[in-house]
Design goal:
Structural class: mainly alpha
Largest sheet: 2 strands, antiparallel
Helix content: 55-70%
Strand order of the largest sheet: 1-2
Number of helices: 14
Radius of gyration: 25 Å
Strand content: under 5%
Distance between the termini: 58 Å
Shape: globular
Length: about 290
């Protein structure tokens, strides 16, 4: 089958900015190309300068990673323009990053691309929402009885660790934009659109890791600020099997759901609290005989 540049441009330009996984992009590119009979695996490899006729397939299947050099060859074979090339390279680095810090860096590079931000507005807003500990706090504060009429300057005095009025204003704007709060047309006060905002029990998302990191920092700051009778801190060191670890995790998730259900029925909010629970293995001994 003959490879044509028209197929590359028809699919890749614009479409690439819809993706957060470069392997998924390559897979969809190849599927679309096969429909129009404009590409074969061998033809792509030859155009990219690879000796293996199945190199594209190995990358799509996750059997091979792209290096800086091989990414350059893919850019050439896909005939990406300068903006698409920069996005593709950051996408490769984002997907293949080993550490959270690196992953976060390359994802922020992706967000700087205007086309990606236009195609993924909800994803970008949720990334911003969960990248700071105070957005959920501001959400609860502005919807407390009587608090919706407070100015950002007045809200400053009620939040610890301290926030600036500018941070609070931007947070309120974000919350309204993504639909987590709305104005009551009659009273002018803010209302929540849903009583509970949760992302589920698993923390796989990059933005959620950012959020939990920021919450840990807040916990350290608050530790000496909140009197003992208003906080509860504990740490357990447990020796347990893999199966028992799963059971403990399940019980923590059940407790979290019970607390969310209890708070969802709350009608007399007086305080806003952060509740953090951590269960993290720190030593792996393996099975013994």
């Amino acid at each position: 089958l003959r490879y044509t540049s028209r197929m590359s441009h028809a699919f890749s330009r614009g479409d690439i900015f819809n993706y957060t996984d470069y392997r998924a992009f390559l897979s969809d590119f190849y599927k679309e190309a096969k429909k129009t009979k404009s590409i074969s695996l061998r033809a792509f490899s030859k155009k990219a300068g690879f000796t293996s006729p199945n190199y594209l397939k190995m990358v799509m299947d996750g059997d091979r990673n792209l290096t800086g050099e091989s990414a350059t060859r893919f850019v050439s074979a896909l005939e990406l323009n300068k903006q698409e090339e920069e996005f593709f390279r950051n996408l490769v680095l984002f997907n293949q990053a080993k550490s959270h810090a690196k992953k976060n860096l390359y994802y922020q590079n992706l967000l700087r691309c205007r086309k990606f931000s236009r195609f993924k507005p909800i994803e970008k807003d949720q990334y911003v929402f969960y990248s700071a500990w105070y957005h959920p706090v501001v959400r609860e504060l502005v919807t407390m009885p009587g608090a919706g009429r407070l100015s950002p300057e007045e809200m400053e005095e009620k939040i610890f660790p301290p926030l600036t009025a500018r941070q609070i204003k931007k947070s309120i704007a974000l919350l309204e934009k993504i639909g987590f709060i709305k104005r009551d047309n009659q009273t002018g006060s803010w209302q929540t659109t849903t009583p509970v905002v949760t992302t589920g029990p698993e923390c796989r998302n990059l933005a959620l890791v950012n959020y939990h990191e920021s919450v840990f920092d807040v916990a350290k700051a608050v530790l000496h600020h909140v009197p003992p009778d208003q906080r509860d801190l504990s740490a357990l060191t447990l020796g347990l099997s893999g199966e028992t670890l799963k059971v403990v995790k399940q019980k923590i998730q059940e407790l979290r759901r019970e607390i969310l259900s209890l708070v969802a029925q709350e009608t007399n909010t007086e305080k806003i609290a952060l509740l953090t629970m951590q269960l993290m293995p720190v030593v792996e001994t393996g099975a013994t005989t």
